[in-house]
Amino acid sequence: MAIAAFYWIAFAAFAVPAAVLELDNGSGLFGVGGKGAAARAAHGGGPEYARFRNNYLAVFALAMAGDWLQGPYVYHLYEYYGFSVRDIGRLFIMGFASSAVVGTVAGAMADKYGRKLAALLYVATYCLSCATKHSSSYKMLLLGRLLGGVSTSLLFSVFESWAVAAHAAHGFEETLLADLFTKAVMLGNGIMAIASGLVGSWLVQGLGLGPVAPFDAAIAVLLVGGAIVAATWEENRGGSGDGTTSLVRQFQAAAMTIARDERVALLGVMQALFEASMYTFVFLWTPALNPHTYVPATPGAPAAAASAGAAEPHLPHGLVFAIFMTASMVGTALAGRLMATLRLEAVLQGVFWAGAALLAVPAAYHTQLADHARASDALLGESSAFELEQAGAAAAAAAVAGLPTPAAQLDMGGRVQLLAFCGFEVLIGLFWPSMMALRARYVPEEQRSTIINIFRIPLNTFVCIILWKVSDFPLGVVFALCCCFLAAAALAQARLAAITAVGLDRDGSPLPLNGLETKPSGGAYDGAAALGKGAAKAVALTSKNGSSSVLRSGRAVEAGDTLSAPQQQQQQQLQQQQQQQQQQQHRRQPQQQQMQQLGISIGAGARPQQASQQQHWWRGLFGSG
Questions:
Q1: How many helices (H) and strands (E) does the chain have?
Q2: Which segments of 469-607 does DSSP mark as H helices, in order?
Q3: Distance between CA 103 and CA 122 in Å, rounded?
Q4: pTM for this prediction
Protein backbone atom coordinates (compact mmCIF):
# COMPACT_ATOMS: atom_id res chain seq x y z
CA MET A 1 0.00 0.00 0.00
CA ALA A 2 2.83 2.35 0.84
CA ILE A 3 4.42 1.68 -2.53
CA ALA A 4 1.15 2.29 -4.37
CA ALA A 5 0.85 5.54 -2.44
CA PHE A 6 4.24 6.58 -3.80
CA TYR A 7 2.92 6.46 -7.39
CA TRP A 8 -0.19 8.47 -6.51
CA ILE A 9 1.86 11.03 -4.62
CA ALA A 10 4.13 11.39 -7.64
CA PHE A 11 1.07 11.80 -9.88
CA ALA A 12 -0.39 14.50 -7.64
CA ALA A 13 3.00 16.22 -7.35
CA PHE A 14 2.89 16.96 -11.09
CA ALA A 15 -0.86 17.11 -11.76
CA VAL A 16 -1.49 19.92 -9.25
CA PRO A 17 1.29 22.23 -10.53
CA ALA A 18 0.22 21.57 -14.13
CA ALA A 19 -3.35 22.64 -13.34
CA VAL A 20 -2.25 25.65 -11.30
CA LEU A 21 0.18 26.87 -13.96
CA GLU A 22 -2.35 26.50 -16.74
CA LEU A 23 -5.01 28.35 -14.79
CA ASP A 24 -2.52 31.05 -13.87
CA ASN A 25 -1.55 31.40 -17.53
CA GLY A 26 -5.15 32.41 -17.75
CA SER A 27 -6.25 31.72 -21.28
CA GLY A 28 -7.25 28.12 -20.74
CA LEU A 29 -6.92 25.71 -23.63
CA PHE A 30 -9.41 27.65 -25.72
CA GLY A 31 -8.75 31.14 -24.38
CA VAL A 32 -11.61 31.32 -21.91
CA GLY A 33 -11.10 33.81 -19.08
CA GLY A 34 -7.93 34.48 -17.21
CA LYS A 35 -5.49 37.28 -16.74
CA GLY A 36 -2.08 35.71 -17.36
CA ALA A 37 0.39 36.34 -20.16
CA ALA A 38 -1.18 33.71 -22.36
CA ALA A 39 -4.59 35.24 -21.87
CA ARG A 40 -3.35 38.69 -22.85
CA ALA A 41 -1.71 37.28 -25.95
CA ALA A 42 -4.82 35.32 -26.91
CA HIS A 43 -7.18 38.24 -26.34
CA GLY A 44 -4.84 40.48 -28.30
CA GLY A 45 -5.54 38.42 -31.41
CA GLY A 46 -9.24 39.26 -31.42
CA PRO A 47 -12.23 37.05 -32.28
CA GLU A 48 -10.83 36.05 -35.67
CA TYR A 49 -7.68 34.68 -34.09
CA ALA A 50 -9.75 32.91 -31.42
CA ARG A 51 -11.74 31.11 -34.13
CA PHE A 52 -8.57 30.16 -35.98
CA ARG A 53 -6.87 28.92 -32.81
CA ASN A 54 -9.85 26.89 -31.57
CA ASN A 55 -10.29 25.25 -34.96
CA TYR A 56 -6.63 24.25 -35.14
CA LEU A 57 -6.55 23.01 -31.55
CA ALA A 58 -9.63 20.84 -32.13
CA VAL A 59 -8.13 19.27 -35.25
CA PHE A 60 -4.70 18.79 -33.68
CA ALA A 61 -6.22 17.24 -30.54
CA LEU A 62 -8.19 14.71 -32.60
CA ALA A 63 -5.15 13.91 -34.73
CA MET A 64 -3.02 13.30 -31.64
CA ALA A 65 -5.78 11.29 -29.95
CA GLY A 66 -5.87 8.98 -32.95
CA ASP A 67 -2.16 8.37 -32.42
CA TRP A 68 -2.26 8.05 -28.61
CA LEU A 69 -5.12 5.54 -28.66
CA GLN A 70 -2.93 3.08 -30.54
CA GLY A 71 0.39 3.55 -28.75
CA PRO A 72 -0.04 1.43 -25.60
CA TYR A 73 -1.52 -1.53 -27.49
CA VAL A 74 0.65 -2.00 -30.57
CA TYR A 75 3.19 -4.27 -28.86
CA HIS A 76 0.45 -6.00 -26.86
CA LEU A 77 -1.54 -6.76 -30.03
CA TYR A 78 1.47 -8.35 -31.71
CA GLU A 79 2.01 -10.50 -28.63
CA TYR A 80 -1.69 -11.39 -28.69
CA TYR A 81 -1.24 -12.70 -32.23
CA GLY A 82 1.64 -14.88 -31.02
CA PHE A 83 4.62 -13.25 -32.73
CA SER A 84 8.10 -13.57 -31.27
CA VAL A 85 10.07 -10.64 -29.93
CA ARG A 86 12.31 -10.75 -33.00
CA ASP A 87 9.31 -10.58 -35.35
CA ILE A 88 7.81 -7.73 -33.33
CA GLY A 89 11.10 -5.86 -33.50
CA ARG A 90 11.08 -6.18 -37.30
CA LEU A 91 7.57 -4.73 -37.38
CA PHE A 92 8.67 -1.70 -35.41
CA ILE A 93 11.73 -1.25 -37.62
CA MET A 94 9.44 -1.20 -40.66
CA GLY A 95 7.52 1.71 -39.14
CA PHE A 96 10.59 3.83 -38.45
CA ALA A 97 12.21 2.96 -41.79
CA SER A 98 9.08 3.97 -43.72
CA SER A 99 8.95 7.19 -41.72
CA ALA A 100 12.53 7.96 -42.71
CA VAL A 101 12.08 7.20 -46.42
CA VAL A 102 8.45 7.32 -47.55
CA GLY A 103 7.45 9.83 -44.88
CA THR A 104 10.11 12.27 -46.03
CA VAL A 105 8.78 12.14 -49.60
CA ALA A 106 5.24 12.60 -48.29
CA GLY A 107 6.35 15.71 -46.41
CA ALA A 108 7.85 17.15 -49.58
CA MET A 109 4.62 16.42 -51.45
CA ALA A 110 2.74 18.33 -48.75
CA ASP A 111 4.77 21.45 -49.54
CA LYS A 112 4.19 20.93 -53.24
CA TYR A 113 0.52 19.90 -53.44
CA GLY A 114 -0.91 21.34 -50.23
CA ARG A 115 -0.91 20.85 -46.45
CA LYS A 116 -4.69 20.40 -46.20
CA LEU A 117 -4.50 17.55 -48.69
CA ALA A 118 -1.62 16.07 -46.71
CA ALA A 119 -3.62 16.30 -43.48
CA LEU A 120 -6.42 14.33 -45.14
CA LEU A 121 -3.80 11.87 -46.38
CA TYR A 122 -2.68 11.45 -42.76
CA VAL A 123 -6.24 10.53 -41.78
CA ALA A 124 -6.57 8.06 -44.65
CA THR A 125 -3.23 6.31 -44.13
CA TYR A 126 -3.63 6.02 -40.36
CA CYS A 127 -7.17 4.66 -40.71
CA LEU A 128 -5.89 2.03 -43.14
CA SER A 129 -3.04 1.23 -40.76
CA CYS A 130 -5.54 0.69 -37.94
CA ALA A 131 -7.72 -1.49 -40.16
CA THR A 132 -4.80 -3.86 -40.84
CA LYS A 133 -4.68 -4.66 -37.10
CA HIS A 134 -7.75 -6.90 -37.56
CA SER A 135 -5.54 -9.31 -39.49
CA SER A 136 -3.03 -11.66 -37.90
CA SER A 137 -1.12 -11.98 -41.18
CA TYR A 138 2.46 -10.85 -40.74
CA LYS A 139 2.56 -9.34 -44.23
CA MET A 140 -0.60 -7.36 -43.55
CA LEU A 141 0.80 -6.09 -40.27
CA LEU A 142 4.00 -5.06 -42.08
CA LEU A 143 1.86 -3.05 -44.47
CA GLY A 144 0.14 -1.48 -41.48
CA ARG A 145 3.46 -0.46 -39.96
CA LEU A 146 4.57 1.04 -43.27
CA LEU A 147 1.39 3.13 -43.44
CA GLY A 148 1.81 4.05 -39.77
CA GLY A 149 5.35 5.32 -40.37
CA VAL A 150 4.16 7.57 -43.19
CA SER A 151 1.32 8.83 -40.97
CA THR A 152 3.71 9.69 -38.14
CA SER A 153 5.87 11.82 -40.43
CA LEU A 154 2.79 13.68 -41.68
CA LEU A 155 1.49 14.19 -38.14
CA PHE A 156 4.66 15.90 -36.91
CA SER A 157 5.18 18.16 -39.91
CA VAL A 158 2.03 18.88 -41.91
CA PHE A 159 -0.20 20.26 -39.16
CA GLU A 160 2.50 22.61 -37.87
CA SER A 161 3.33 23.79 -41.40
CA TRP A 162 -0.32 24.47 -42.18
CA ALA A 163 -0.75 26.43 -38.94
CA VAL A 164 2.29 28.66 -39.55
CA ALA A 165 1.28 29.42 -43.15
CA ALA A 166 -2.37 30.06 -42.26
CA HIS A 167 -1.32 32.21 -39.30
CA ALA A 168 0.80 34.40 -41.59
CA ALA A 169 -1.91 34.50 -44.29
CA HIS A 170 -4.41 35.91 -41.79
CA GLY A 171 -1.91 38.56 -40.70
CA PHE A 172 -1.90 37.59 -37.02
CA GLU A 173 0.92 38.80 -34.81
CA GLU A 174 3.86 36.41 -34.77
CA THR A 175 4.00 36.45 -30.97
CA LEU A 176 0.69 34.55 -30.97
CA LEU A 177 2.40 31.51 -32.49
CA ALA A 178 4.00 30.75 -29.12
CA ASP A 179 0.54 30.84 -27.52
CA LEU A 180 -0.84 28.54 -30.23
CA PHE A 181 1.95 25.96 -30.03
CA THR A 182 1.97 25.92 -26.23
CA LYS A 183 -1.73 25.13 -26.14
CA ALA A 184 -1.40 22.56 -28.92
CA VAL A 185 1.30 20.66 -27.03
CA MET A 186 -0.61 20.91 -23.75
CA LEU A 187 -3.78 19.60 -25.33
CA GLY A 188 -2.36 17.08 -27.80
CA ASN A 189 0.57 15.63 -25.85
CA GLY A 190 -0.88 16.05 -22.36
CA ILE A 191 -4.63 15.93 -21.90
CA MET A 192 -5.39 13.83 -24.98
CA ALA A 193 -2.61 11.37 -24.12
CA ILE A 194 -4.04 10.77 -20.65
CA ALA A 195 -7.63 10.63 -21.89
CA SER A 196 -6.70 8.23 -24.71
CA GLY A 197 -4.95 5.93 -22.28
CA LEU A 198 -7.99 5.83 -20.01
CA VAL A 199 -10.40 5.24 -22.91
CA GLY A 200 -8.21 2.48 -24.33
CA SER A 201 -7.99 0.79 -20.94
CA TRP A 202 -11.77 1.01 -20.55
CA LEU A 203 -12.34 -0.55 -23.97
CA VAL A 204 -9.88 -3.40 -23.47
CA GLN A 205 -10.16 -4.21 -19.75
CA GLY A 206 -13.47 -2.61 -18.79
CA LEU A 207 -15.63 -3.73 -21.71
CA GLY A 208 -13.51 -6.72 -22.65
CA LEU A 209 -13.49 -5.84 -26.35
CA GLY A 210 -9.97 -7.09 -26.95
CA PRO A 211 -6.72 -5.40 -28.00
CA VAL A 212 -8.07 -4.33 -31.42
CA ALA A 213 -10.75 -2.06 -29.90
CA PRO A 214 -8.46 0.98 -29.36
CA PHE A 215 -7.52 0.90 -33.03
CA ASP A 216 -11.17 0.97 -34.05
CA ALA A 217 -11.72 3.91 -31.70
CA ALA A 218 -8.75 5.65 -33.31
CA ILE A 219 -10.39 5.29 -36.74
CA ALA A 220 -13.55 7.00 -35.45
CA VAL A 221 -11.59 9.86 -33.89
CA LEU A 222 -9.45 10.37 -36.99
CA LEU A 223 -12.50 10.47 -39.27
CA VAL A 224 -14.04 13.23 -37.15
CA GLY A 225 -10.82 15.24 -37.37
CA GLY A 226 -10.63 14.66 -41.11
CA ALA A 227 -14.19 15.89 -41.56
CA ILE A 228 -13.34 19.14 -39.75
CA VAL A 229 -10.26 19.62 -41.93
CA ALA A 230 -12.22 19.01 -45.13
CA ALA A 231 -15.00 21.40 -44.12
CA THR A 232 -13.09 24.30 -42.55
CA TRP A 233 -9.43 24.41 -43.61
CA GLU A 234 -8.14 26.45 -46.51
CA GLU A 235 -5.40 24.97 -48.66
CA ASN A 236 -1.89 26.38 -48.44
CA ARG A 237 1.31 25.30 -50.12
CA GLY A 238 5.02 25.94 -50.04
CA GLY A 239 6.87 28.27 -52.37
CA SER A 240 7.09 25.54 -55.03
CA GLY A 241 3.46 24.59 -54.75
CA ASP A 242 2.66 25.83 -58.25
CA GLY A 243 3.36 22.36 -59.62
CA THR A 244 6.26 23.47 -61.86
CA THR A 245 9.03 22.16 -59.60
CA SER A 246 9.78 18.45 -59.39
CA LEU A 247 10.18 16.66 -56.08
CA VAL A 248 13.87 16.12 -56.83
CA ARG A 249 14.42 19.84 -57.25
CA GLN A 250 12.33 20.48 -54.17
CA PHE A 251 14.66 18.26 -52.15
CA GLN A 252 17.62 20.04 -53.74
CA ALA A 253 16.17 23.37 -52.66
CA ALA A 254 15.65 22.13 -49.10
CA ALA A 255 19.16 20.68 -48.99
CA MET A 256 20.62 23.95 -50.28
CA THR A 257 18.71 25.86 -47.60
CA ILE A 258 20.18 23.62 -44.91
CA ALA A 259 23.68 23.91 -46.43
CA ARG A 260 23.49 27.71 -46.76
CA ASP A 261 21.84 28.60 -43.50
CA GLU A 262 23.70 27.44 -40.41
CA ARG A 263 20.71 28.26 -38.22
CA VAL A 264 18.51 25.78 -40.08
CA ALA A 265 21.21 23.11 -39.96
CA LEU A 266 21.67 23.63 -36.22
CA LEU A 267 17.94 23.26 -35.66
CA GLY A 268 18.06 19.95 -37.50
CA VAL A 269 20.96 18.73 -35.38
CA MET A 270 19.21 19.70 -32.16
CA GLN A 271 15.91 18.14 -33.17
CA ALA A 272 17.51 14.86 -34.25
CA LEU A 273 19.66 14.53 -31.13
CA PHE A 274 16.88 15.38 -28.69
CA GLU A 275 14.25 13.20 -30.35
CA ALA A 276 16.70 10.28 -30.57
CA SER A 277 17.23 10.55 -26.81
CA MET A 278 13.49 10.94 -26.24
CA TYR A 279 12.49 7.86 -28.24
CA THR A 280 15.25 5.81 -26.63
CA PHE A 281 13.87 6.84 -23.24
CA VAL A 282 10.36 5.84 -24.38
CA PHE A 283 11.61 2.36 -25.30
CA LEU A 284 13.74 1.78 -22.22
CA TRP A 285 11.95 3.26 -19.22
CA THR A 286 10.05 0.00 -18.65
CA PRO A 287 13.12 -2.26 -18.44
CA ALA A 288 14.91 0.47 -16.49
CA LEU A 289 12.20 0.40 -13.81
CA ASN A 290 11.33 -3.28 -14.10
CA PRO A 291 11.44 -4.63 -10.52
CA HIS A 292 12.26 -8.16 -11.65
CA THR A 293 15.28 -7.23 -13.70
CA TYR A 294 16.67 -4.07 -12.21
CA VAL A 295 14.75 -2.78 -9.21
CA PRO A 296 14.79 -5.25 -6.31
CA ALA A 297 12.02 -4.83 -3.77
CA THR A 298 13.50 -6.84 -0.91
CA PRO A 299 17.06 -8.05 -1.52
CA GLY A 300 17.88 -11.59 -0.56
CA ALA A 301 14.70 -13.38 -1.63
CA PRO A 302 15.31 -17.11 -2.01
CA ALA A 303 16.03 -18.04 -5.59
CA ALA A 304 14.29 -21.35 -5.01
CA ALA A 305 11.02 -19.63 -4.21
CA ALA A 306 11.24 -17.53 -7.37
CA SER A 307 12.12 -20.45 -9.57
CA ALA A 308 9.30 -22.48 -8.00
CA GLY A 309 6.71 -20.36 -9.76
CA ALA A 310 7.08 -16.89 -8.33
CA ALA A 311 5.53 -14.21 -10.49
CA GLU A 312 7.48 -11.01 -10.43
CA PRO A 313 5.81 -7.82 -9.24
CA HIS A 314 4.57 -5.79 -12.20
CA LEU A 315 4.87 -2.10 -12.87
CA PRO A 316 1.56 -0.22 -13.00
CA HIS A 317 2.26 0.95 -16.55
CA GLY A 318 -0.94 2.94 -16.90
CA LEU A 319 -0.29 4.91 -13.73
CA VAL A 320 3.38 5.50 -14.55
CA PHE A 321 2.36 6.67 -18.03
CA ALA A 322 -0.13 9.09 -16.47
CA ILE A 323 2.62 10.43 -14.18
CA PHE A 324 4.86 11.03 -17.19
CA MET A 325 2.12 12.84 -19.10
CA THR A 326 1.28 15.14 -16.18
CA ALA A 327 4.99 15.94 -15.82
CA SER A 328 5.08 16.80 -19.51
CA MET A 329 2.09 19.10 -18.99
CA VAL A 330 4.03 20.95 -16.29
CA GLY A 331 6.78 21.61 -18.81
CA THR A 332 4.32 22.81 -21.43
CA ALA A 333 2.67 25.16 -18.93
CA LEU A 334 6.09 26.54 -17.99
CA ALA A 335 7.02 27.00 -21.64
CA GLY A 336 4.63 29.90 -22.14
CA ARG A 337 6.09 31.78 -19.17
CA LEU A 338 9.71 31.15 -20.11
CA MET A 339 9.18 32.01 -23.77
CA ALA A 340 7.68 35.35 -22.72
CA THR A 341 10.69 36.33 -20.60
CA LEU A 342 13.73 34.57 -22.07
CA ARG A 343 15.23 34.04 -25.47
CA LEU A 344 14.15 30.75 -27.01
CA GLU A 345 17.81 29.85 -27.47
CA ALA A 346 18.39 30.18 -23.73
CA VAL A 347 15.32 28.07 -22.91
CA LEU A 348 16.39 25.21 -25.15
CA GLN A 349 19.98 25.31 -23.99
CA GLY A 350 18.76 24.83 -20.43
CA VAL A 351 16.52 21.99 -21.59
CA PHE A 352 19.41 20.12 -23.19
CA TRP A 353 21.86 20.47 -20.30
CA ALA A 354 19.20 19.55 -17.74
CA GLY A 355 18.19 16.54 -19.86
CA ALA A 356 21.76 15.29 -19.96
CA ALA A 357 22.01 15.61 -16.17
CA LEU A 358 18.71 13.77 -15.58
CA LEU A 359 19.47 10.84 -17.90
CA ALA A 360 22.86 10.54 -16.22
CA VAL A 361 20.92 9.17 -13.21
CA PRO A 362 19.79 5.90 -14.89
CA ALA A 363 23.11 5.76 -16.76
CA ALA A 364 25.01 5.74 -13.47
CA TYR A 365 22.57 3.38 -11.79
CA HIS A 366 22.64 0.75 -14.55
CA THR A 367 26.36 0.99 -15.11
CA GLN A 368 26.68 -0.82 -11.76
CA LEU A 369 24.48 -3.62 -13.15
CA ALA A 370 26.03 -3.72 -16.62
CA ASP A 371 27.01 -7.37 -16.27
CA HIS A 372 23.45 -8.36 -15.44
CA ALA A 373 21.05 -5.81 -16.90
CA ARG A 374 20.48 -5.46 -20.60
CA ALA A 375 17.47 -4.06 -22.37
CA SER A 376 16.87 -7.46 -23.99
CA ASP A 377 16.42 -9.10 -20.58
CA ALA A 378 13.18 -7.26 -19.95
CA LEU A 379 12.04 -7.39 -23.58
CA LEU A 380 12.68 -11.12 -23.89
CA GLY A 381 11.52 -12.03 -20.41
CA GLU A 382 14.86 -13.63 -19.46
CA SER A 383 16.04 -14.00 -15.87
CA SER A 384 19.54 -14.60 -14.62
CA ALA A 385 20.48 -16.18 -11.30
CA PHE A 386 21.45 -12.75 -10.03
CA GLU A 387 17.98 -11.38 -10.85
CA LEU A 388 16.18 -14.31 -9.23
CA GLU A 389 18.17 -13.85 -6.04
CA GLN A 390 17.18 -10.20 -6.01
CA ALA A 391 13.45 -10.84 -6.45
CA GLY A 392 11.29 -9.55 -3.63
CA ALA A 393 10.50 -12.09 -0.92
CA ALA A 394 6.97 -10.79 -0.55
CA ALA A 395 6.31 -11.03 -4.27
CA ALA A 396 7.69 -14.59 -4.44
CA ALA A 397 5.69 -15.72 -1.46
CA ALA A 398 2.50 -14.18 -2.81
CA ALA A 399 2.93 -15.85 -6.19
CA VAL A 400 3.67 -19.28 -4.68
CA ALA A 401 0.60 -18.92 -2.44
CA GLY A 402 -1.58 -18.12 -5.45
CA LEU A 403 -2.23 -14.53 -4.43
CA PRO A 404 -2.52 -11.74 -7.02
CA THR A 405 0.79 -10.42 -8.32
CA PRO A 406 1.63 -7.26 -6.36
CA ALA A 407 2.43 -3.92 -7.87
CA ALA A 408 6.09 -3.19 -8.42
CA GLN A 409 7.95 -2.30 -5.25
CA LEU A 410 10.59 0.14 -6.33
CA ASP A 411 13.58 0.45 -4.07
CA MET A 412 15.23 3.82 -3.51
CA GLY A 413 17.20 3.52 -6.75
CA GLY A 414 14.02 2.83 -8.68
CA ARG A 415 12.25 5.80 -7.12
CA VAL A 416 15.13 8.11 -7.90
CA GLN A 417 15.07 6.90 -11.52
CA LEU A 418 11.31 7.45 -11.75
CA LEU A 419 11.68 11.02 -10.50
CA ALA A 420 14.54 11.61 -12.97
CA PHE A 421 12.34 10.33 -15.79
CA CYS A 422 9.56 12.64 -14.65
CA GLY A 423 12.00 15.54 -14.78
CA PHE A 424 12.93 14.54 -18.32
CA GLU A 425 9.24 14.52 -19.25
CA VAL A 426 9.00 18.11 -17.95
CA LEU A 427 11.81 18.99 -20.35
CA ILE A 428 9.97 17.26 -23.20
CA GLY A 429 7.00 19.49 -22.46
CA LEU A 430 9.31 22.52 -22.65
CA PHE A 431 11.06 21.35 -25.80
CA TRP A 432 8.15 21.03 -28.22
CA PRO A 433 6.61 24.52 -28.13
CA SER A 434 10.09 26.10 -28.01
CA MET A 435 11.30 24.12 -31.01
CA MET A 436 8.09 24.83 -32.94
CA ALA A 437 8.56 28.56 -32.35
CA LEU A 438 12.21 28.42 -33.47
CA ARG A 439 11.29 26.49 -36.61
CA ALA A 440 8.61 29.08 -37.39
CA ARG A 441 11.29 31.77 -37.07
CA TYR A 442 14.17 30.27 -39.05
CA VAL A 443 12.86 27.51 -41.35
CA PRO A 444 11.51 28.88 -44.65
CA GLU A 445 7.74 28.54 -44.82
CA GLU A 446 7.73 27.26 -48.40
CA GLN A 447 9.99 24.31 -47.50
CA ARG A 448 8.96 23.67 -43.90
CA SER A 449 7.38 20.18 -44.24
CA THR A 450 10.25 18.97 -46.43
CA ILE A 451 12.96 20.24 -44.09
CA ILE A 452 11.27 18.97 -40.93
CA ASN A 453 11.04 15.48 -42.40
CA ILE A 454 14.66 15.63 -43.56
CA PHE A 455 15.52 16.36 -39.93
CA ARG A 456 13.78 13.11 -38.94
CA ILE A 457 15.95 10.90 -41.17
CA PRO A 458 18.90 10.59 -38.72
CA LEU A 459 16.42 10.16 -35.85
CA ASN A 460 14.66 7.22 -37.50
CA THR A 461 17.98 5.69 -38.56
CA PHE A 462 19.29 5.78 -35.00
CA VAL A 463 16.09 4.27 -33.58
CA CYS A 464 16.22 1.44 -36.13
CA ILE A 465 19.80 0.67 -35.06
CA ILE A 466 18.78 0.62 -31.40
CA LEU A 467 15.87 -1.74 -32.12
CA TRP A 468 18.05 -4.02 -34.23
CA LYS A 469 20.93 -4.18 -31.75
CA VAL A 470 19.09 -3.64 -28.47
CA SER A 471 20.35 -6.92 -27.01
CA ASP A 472 23.98 -5.87 -27.48
CA PHE A 473 23.89 -2.68 -25.41
CA PRO A 474 23.70 -2.55 -21.60
CA LEU A 475 21.18 -0.02 -20.36
CA GLY A 476 23.87 2.08 -18.74
CA VAL A 477 25.66 2.47 -22.09
CA VAL A 478 22.46 3.43 -23.93
CA PHE A 479 21.51 6.08 -21.38
CA ALA A 480 25.09 7.41 -21.35
CA LEU A 481 24.87 7.72 -25.13
CA CYS A 482 21.68 9.74 -24.72
CA CYS A 483 23.52 12.05 -22.30
CA CYS A 484 26.18 12.63 -24.94
CA PHE A 485 23.49 13.38 -27.54
CA LEU A 486 21.88 15.96 -25.28
CA ALA A 487 25.20 17.58 -24.45
CA ALA A 488 25.95 17.84 -28.18
CA ALA A 489 22.51 19.39 -28.71
CA ALA A 490 23.31 21.95 -26.00
CA LEU A 491 26.55 22.87 -27.77
CA ALA A 492 24.66 23.24 -31.06
CA GLN A 493 22.16 25.48 -29.28
CA ALA A 494 24.98 27.57 -27.85
CA ARG A 495 26.29 28.07 -31.36
CA LEU A 496 22.83 29.08 -32.56
CA ALA A 497 22.52 31.57 -29.71
CA ALA A 498 25.92 33.04 -30.61
CA ILE A 499 25.20 33.60 -34.29
CA THR A 500 21.70 34.99 -33.67
CA ALA A 501 22.65 37.34 -30.82
CA VAL A 502 23.60 39.95 -33.41
CA GLY A 503 22.77 38.41 -36.76
CA LEU A 504 20.60 38.78 -39.80
CA ASP A 505 16.97 37.96 -40.35
CA ARG A 506 15.83 35.78 -43.23
CA ASP A 507 15.31 38.90 -45.34
CA GLY A 508 18.79 40.25 -44.55
CA SER A 509 17.76 42.81 -41.93
CA PRO A 510 19.47 42.75 -38.52
CA LEU A 511 17.96 40.55 -35.84
CA PRO A 512 17.34 42.16 -32.43
CA LEU A 513 19.63 41.24 -29.58
CA ASN A 514 16.98 39.18 -27.79
CA GLY A 515 16.56 36.91 -30.79
CA LEU A 516 13.05 38.04 -31.75
CA GLU A 517 12.51 38.99 -35.37
CA THR A 518 11.75 42.60 -36.09
CA LYS A 519 9.14 41.56 -38.62
CA PRO A 520 7.51 38.23 -39.44
CA SER A 521 6.74 36.71 -42.79
CA GLY A 522 3.20 38.07 -42.70
CA GLY A 523 1.52 41.04 -41.03
CA ALA A 524 2.86 43.98 -39.13
CA TYR A 525 4.98 43.34 -36.09
CA ASP A 526 5.77 45.54 -33.12
CA GLY A 527 9.32 44.77 -32.08
CA ALA A 528 8.95 46.64 -28.78
CA ALA A 529 5.85 44.67 -27.78
CA ALA A 530 7.56 41.40 -28.59
CA LEU A 531 10.40 41.98 -26.19
CA GLY A 532 8.38 40.71 -23.25
CA LYS A 533 9.13 41.12 -19.59
CA GLY A 534 12.74 40.60 -18.69
CA ALA A 535 14.02 40.90 -22.28
CA ALA A 536 16.98 43.02 -23.26
CA LYS A 537 16.40 46.76 -22.92
CA ALA A 538 18.29 47.67 -26.06
CA VAL A 539 17.30 46.23 -29.43
CA ALA A 540 18.91 47.10 -32.71
CA LEU A 541 16.58 48.13 -35.51
CA THR A 542 17.26 49.32 -39.01
CA SER A 543 15.85 52.67 -40.00
CA LYS A 544 14.63 53.58 -43.46
CA ASN A 545 17.78 55.45 -44.37
CA GLY A 546 19.96 52.47 -43.58
CA SER A 547 21.39 53.88 -40.35
CA SER A 548 21.00 52.14 -37.01
CA SER A 549 18.90 53.31 -34.12
CA VAL A 550 18.50 51.75 -30.72
CA LEU A 551 15.24 50.98 -28.99
CA ARG A 552 15.47 52.03 -25.35
CA SER A 553 12.50 51.19 -23.13
CA GLY A 554 10.20 51.04 -26.14
CA ARG A 555 11.40 54.41 -27.59
CA ALA A 556 13.69 54.92 -30.56
CA VAL A 557 16.87 56.75 -29.61
CA GLU A 558 17.25 59.95 -31.57
CA ALA A 559 20.46 61.33 -33.02
CA GLY A 560 21.01 63.72 -30.09
CA ASP A 561 20.66 61.06 -27.39
CA THR A 562 23.69 59.84 -25.47
CA LEU A 563 24.35 56.13 -25.93
CA SER A 564 25.92 53.91 -23.33
CA ALA A 565 29.07 51.95 -24.13
CA PRO A 566 27.17 48.64 -24.80
CA GLN A 567 24.74 50.46 -27.10
CA GLN A 568 27.59 52.09 -28.99
CA GLN A 569 29.19 48.69 -29.42
CA GLN A 570 25.91 47.29 -30.73
CA GLN A 571 25.66 50.11 -33.26
CA GLN A 572 29.21 49.48 -34.43
CA GLN A 573 28.46 45.78 -34.89
CA LEU A 574 25.38 46.57 -36.95
CA GLN A 575 27.27 49.05 -39.11
CA GLN A 576 29.94 46.43 -39.74
CA GLN A 577 27.26 43.97 -40.79
CA GLN A 578 25.76 46.46 -43.21
CA GLN A 579 29.18 47.12 -44.72
CA GLN A 580 29.71 43.38 -45.13
CA GLN A 581 26.36 43.09 -46.87
CA GLN A 582 27.30 45.82 -49.31
CA GLN A 583 30.68 44.25 -49.99
CA GLN A 584 29.09 40.86 -50.61
CA GLN A 585 26.26 42.21 -52.77
CA HIS A 586 28.10 41.51 -56.03
CA ARG A 587 28.56 37.85 -55.09
CA ARG A 588 24.84 37.15 -55.19
CA GLN A 589 24.42 37.03 -58.96
CA PRO A 590 26.24 33.73 -59.60
CA GLN A 591 24.34 32.09 -56.72
CA GLN A 592 20.99 33.31 -58.00
CA GLN A 593 21.76 32.10 -61.50
CA GLN A 594 22.70 28.69 -60.15
CA MET A 595 19.46 28.43 -58.19
CA GLN A 596 17.41 29.56 -61.19
CA GLN A 597 19.03 26.87 -63.31
CA LEU A 598 17.80 24.33 -60.75
CA GLY A 599 14.33 25.79 -60.95
CA ILE A 600 14.37 26.97 -57.35
CA SER A 601 12.48 30.07 -56.35
CA ILE A 602 14.01 32.18 -53.61
CA GLY A 603 11.28 32.80 -51.09
CA ALA A 604 11.06 34.73 -47.87
CA GLY A 605 13.02 32.07 -46.04
CA ALA A 606 15.92 31.94 -48.48
CA ARG A 607 16.67 35.49 -49.51
CA PRO A 608 19.85 36.38 -51.42
CA GLN A 609 21.23 38.37 -48.48
CA GLN A 610 21.03 35.32 -46.29
CA ALA A 611 22.58 33.17 -48.99
CA SER A 612 25.55 35.47 -49.36
CA GLN A 613 26.14 35.59 -45.63
CA GLN A 614 25.45 31.94 -44.77
CA GLN A 615 26.77 30.30 -47.96
CA HIS A 616 28.81 27.18 -47.21
CA TRP A 617 28.89 27.68 -43.42
CA TRP A 618 29.86 24.02 -43.10
CA ARG A 619 33.14 24.53 -44.98
CA GLY A 620 34.54 26.18 -41.88
CA LEU A 621 34.30 22.84 -40.13
CA PHE A 622 36.93 21.51 -42.51
CA GLY A 623 39.12 24.59 -42.57
CA SER A 624 38.15 25.76 -46.03
CA GLY A 625 35.78 28.26 -47.59
A1: 26, 3
A2: 475-501, 565-584, 588-597
A3: 10
A4: 0.63
